[in-house]
Amino acid sequence: ETGVTQSPTHLIKTRGQQVTLRCSSQSGHNTVSWYQQALGQGPQFIFQYYREEENGRGNFPPRFSGLQFPNYSSELNVNALELDDSALYLCASSSNQGLFFGEGSRLTVL
Amino acid sequence: QKEVEQDPGPLSVPEGAIVSLNCTYSNSAFQYFMWYRQYSRKGPELLMYTYSSGNKEDGRFTAQVDKSSKYISLFIRDSQPSDSATYLCAMSAGTGANSKLTFGKGITLSVRP
Questions:
Q1: N or C: which end of chain A has fewer CB within 10 A?
Q2: Cβ neighbours around B39 below 10 Å, total
Q3: What's the pLDDT band for B108 if we cut at 50, 70, 90?
């Protein structure tokens, strides 16, 4: 049990639509990260939020955006969905013992 | 060259075998090294977390880091069918707010009863 919960677990969208994914992290963990895991690949870093500010971004276009709230929960928003955005989206919270992931939100873009 | 390379799979072993999983990396700034286990359609589960070079043991699992060779390994002793999963190596240059992880591609392990 990592204490990181994500919603929704599965969703299907069509190309061009927008999606919002949500994450609730463990109490006291003020850093949250988002990763994209395509089928058969390792997770790829999208961005990280620390105390409500973006603190590092991977090689993803601006249509991937995020928010972190005062209670350290977080959202990932993706606009203008493309077929290649189909993946498992993982949220993770950080502690001095490592990075702990939620179960992910599986997005399918048709 | 990718920052993190992981031995390609899949890997199939009989129950009770010793399994060796390996990764190499190119970024000298990496100081924190992790192994994750991921069951099908689930999120990665942190198995081992080590800092810098050396060995760390936890039950049937041993993690080794050789920073001079930029090489990390995970050993699984007395492998069980329940160990069948995808194993991902990951590493970062820092912790907390600097904990961006770079992952290997993962290797799928199957332990045959």
A1: N
A2: 12
A3: very high
